[in-house]
């Protein structure tokens, strides 16, 4: 069974159609890159996947279960998201440890959480020193690791990464990309990578879907789409990527 | 044209200078890149060129613009400097323009300029005269950045400071703005960015900064073909590339130092794969455009 089945997704705001007949699938343990420029509807698609918005038409199935029909808590166990700026999604008053404990308390009642918190932090390359820190005491890369650890805490089937590495420095971005690849290899989780950066998609995604004006204009295996693009818009995107002119 | 000599900028409550002994030149008809990660001091450097340092910052060294020292200028001279010699383009055009005023007002308010001149400027940056009547919210980010560029050109500056001018833009818009900046042929340009690849597309020469210091400076082609400093090499390797599909770029371990850490010797030493004990003993100077003790040796080791 596929981890994610999206069919005929549509969302309009007034007369403006933000997402129009979008569909894709992600096989178990797969990785899909959703590429597009601002206004292409990729972030609205993310909100629809998470159940944060109700689609006007179409359906989102995670492991065969419709996200629109399950309870909030169950939905959280199926699909999680990491945003571009973890500063905006982490509570500034909670230490890293408290932040993870809160999620675990909500989903897995147990007498103590210390061991699991330690495991999660280790998984994302953080130690006990960071566990006691507040978000503002951490660097951007460390905050993003915390956000990833929090998303993984509930052992979701699908992790949506909405421009999750866009705000990071190149040297740190490569660390996070490596971390995400390791996690996918070790856990049963699949990724939806939402990004404007084709080069990033090229190194992490098996499949890619290119969005424009709310529609998917081209999709297929990453190598095929990036090396022999069929749609003019994909070609324009590829030609716009800066590269050293030797 | 622009020559920065041994610029050091200290911010209050920090352990080390944010810009540390930086020397940089921009010659006539040259586009120079200043590349670094966040916190490397690149933006502070470009602000120093405008004489726009934070109030409590202490700056030493010299910033010579056509023979005049920016750090020694009085207010009247600074105003003249900012209107006639140097102009700046920022990252986010929406933050640079008042949302309440029309584009035409924005262009004509600061410098005595008539509508015809403003319309001419808009044409230079690829917009139409009718855009003068638009308000900022009616224009896209790319169009608005063109307006900001037009305003920067109004004073016929000798030097254009572009601080991450395309970072907030989409990749296709970025390509258009870069093409525009190339076409404009301002006498000199200092292009500040975190994106090495982008710097490569537009700059003649690149300075790579790390923790307030210049790590490497060479002509763009050479720097990319054969990076000598381990930091430059690491940064280039860490950049995801379209021609290396399916492979993860190797990361540089650790993280950039913050301003509270005092760094003896080479600032990159704690993250460097080739570090020796002597690296932390003293700060390596720039030799042949590279600030690395082992540059020669590492260069010889390679096939």
UniProtKB/TrEMBL annotation, chain A:
Asked if the Swiss-Prot or TrEMBL record annotates the protein with the keyword ATP-binding, the reply is yes
Q: Does the keyword ATP-binding apply?
A: yes
Output the GO biological process annotations, alphabetical, semicolon-separated. peptide transport; transmembrane transport
InterPro entries in alphabetical order: AAA+_ATPase, ABC_transp_ATP-bind, ABC_transporter-like_ATP-bd, ABC_transporter-like_CS, Oligopep_ABC_C, P-loop_NTPase
Residue span(s) of domain ABC transporter: 4-238
- UniProt KW keywords: ATP-binding, Nucleotide-binding, Transport
One GO term in the molecular function aspect is: ATP binding
The Swiss-Prot or TrEMBL record describes its family as follows: Belongs to the ABC transporter superfamily.
**Under which name does UniProt file this protein?**
ABC-type glutathione transport system ATPase component
Automatic annotation (TrEMBL), chain B:
Keyword Hydrolase on this protein?
A: no
| Domain ABC transporter residue range list | 2-236
Instruction: Show the GO MF annotations.
Output: ATP binding; ATP hydrolysis activity
Q: Which UniProt keywords apply?
A: ATP-binding, Cell membrane, Membrane, Nucleotide-binding, Transport
Give the CC-aspect GO terms. Answer: plasma membrane
Q: How does it sit in the membrane?
A: Peripheral membrane protein
Work out whether the entry's keyword set contains Membrane. Answer: yes
**What domain of life does the native source organism fall in?**
Bacteria
Major location, coarse class? membrane
Question: Which Pfam families did the record assign?
Answer: ABC_tran, oligo_HPY
The listed locations are: Cell membrane
Q: Name one GO biological process term.
A: peptide transport
**Record-linked NCBIfam families:** oligo_HPY (TIGR01727)
Q: Which family does it belong to?
A: Belongs to the ABC transporter superfamily.
Q: Which PANTHER family match?
A: DIPEPTIDE TRANSPORT ATP-BINDING PROTEIN DPPD (PTHR43297:SF2), OLIGOPEPTIDE TRANSPORT ATP-BINDING PROTEIN APPD (PTHR43297)
Q: What is this protein called?
A: Oligopeptide/dipeptide ABC transporter ATP-binding protein
UniProt lineage: Bacteria, Bacillati, Actinomycetota, Actinomycetes, Streptosporangiales
